[in-house]
From TrEMBL:
Biological source species: Salisediminibacterium beveridgei
SMART domains attached to this UniProt entry: CoA_binding
Domain CoA-binding intervals: 13-105
InterPro entries: CoA-bd (IPR003781), NAD(P)-bd_dom_sf (IPR036291)
Designated name of the protein: Succinyl-CoA synthetase, alpha subunit-like protein
Pfam families: CoA_binding_2 (PF13380)
Phylogenetic classification of the source organism: Bacteria, Bacillati, Bacillota, Bacilli, Bacillales
C-alpha cells in the first residue's frame, strides 16, 4: 500500500483546520481520545463521530459523517479495517478531501475507491505521530 510522500502529509497537516474523528471515545484511557486530545491541543477543531457518545472535549458528537454540517479537512478513522468499506460510502458523499485511517487500519479496495473519487488517502499511519515528527513538536 502506497501512502502520499511525507512532504505531502506535512502540507496536509499544516493546512488542515477541522478533523472529524470517527470512532472517537469519550474515555481518556482510549487511544482515540488521547490522539484527538493531542490534535485539539495542537489547535485543530475536532468533531467527534460516534453514535455511542454525547460529546467529547465539549463538542457535541454526531452519529455519522453525513450529519456533519461544517467543512472538514481530514476524516480520521479509529475503527477496524472491516468497517472501512461501509465508511467509504459516507466519505464519497462528503466533501472532506483527506481520508486517514490509524495504525493497523487499512483496506486496499477502499483506498483505490476513494482515490479514484479524488480523495487523498492515508492508511495505517498515526496522525499524532506524523504531526509530532513532521511539525517538530
Amino acid at each position: 500500500m502506497q501512502n502520499p510522500k511525507m512532504d505531502e502529509i506535512k502540507t496536509i497537516l499544516e493546512e488542515a483546520h477541522t478533523i472529524a474523528v470517527v470512532g472517537l471515545s469519550d474515555k481518556p484511557n482510549r487511544t482515540s481520545y488521547q490522539v484527538a486530545e493531542f490534535l485539539v491541543n495542537a489547535g485543530y477543531h475536532v468533531i467527534p463521530v460516534n453514535p455511542r457518545v454525547d460529546e467529547v472535549f465539549g463538542v457535541h458528537a454526531v452519529d455519522s459523517i453525513s450529519e456533519i454540517k461544517e467543512k472538514v479537512d481530514i476524516i480520521n478513522v479509529f475503527r477496524r479495517s472491516d468497517y472501512l468499506s461501509e465508511l467509504a460510502h459516507d466519505v464519497l458523499d462528503f466533501h472532506a478531501p483527506v481520508f486517514w485511517s490509524q495504525l493497523g487500519v487499512y483496506d486496499e479496495n477502499v483506498k483505490d475507491e476513494l482515490e479514484n473519487a479524488g480523495k487523498t488517502v492515508i492508511m495505517d499511519r498515526c496522525i499524532k505521530v506524523d504531526y509530532a515528527t513532521l511539525l517538530n513538536v
